[in-house]
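On clarity, I found the account of how folds are encoded harder to follow than it need be. For illustration, here is how one protein appears when written out as sequence plus C-alpha cells:

:::
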Amino acid sequence: MPIRRIARSLLAATFIANGVDTLLHPKSKVEAARPVLDKARTLVPAAASVDPELFVKADGAVKVGAGLMMALGRAPRLSAALLAVDLIPSTATEHPFWSGDYADDRRTQQAQFLKNASLFGGLILAITAPSSKKSKLSDKTEQARKKGERVSRRARKAAENARKDARKAAKNTRKEVRKAAENTRRGVHRAARHVGA
C-alpha cells in the first residue's frame, strides 16, 4: 500500500538523518555517550575495551542502514526492531532531562525525550503491523466482495427488467386475446346474420 510506504519513509527519515549526522560529526555524541559507557564498563568488564567514538559511529551506521531498509520496505519489521532497540540507549544518553541544571534545558531535553518516545511508539506499530501479504489478501477479498455486489446489483436489475417485460407482454397478450375474442364474436355475429338472412 502506498500509505504504508510513505509512513515507513517518514518514520525512517529521522533515523537516517540522525545517523548521517552522527557519522559526520561524532564528537558531541561521543561526549554524551561517555558516562553511559563508563557505567557499562563497571557492569560488563568486556566493555572496557570499547572505543567510545567507534561505538557512536557504529550506532550511526545502524541508524542509517536500518533506516534505509525500513524506508525501502526491505525487512521492515526487522529494521524497525533494530531502530527501536537502538533508540533506547540513544535517548538515555542524548536527552537526560532528569539531570539538567536549568529549567529551560530540562524542558528542551524532556521535549526531545518525549519525541523519541513517540518515535519508539511508531516503531512498535511498524513491528506489529500486519504483513503486506495479509493486506494484499484482504485487498483482494475486498475487491471480490465489491465485484460480487456489482454482479448482484446487475442480476437484481436484470430480474426486475425481466419482470417488467413479462408484465408488459402479459398485458399485451391479454389485449390481443380480448381483441381476437371481440373480432371472433363480431365475425360470428355477422355470420349468424348472414346465415339467418
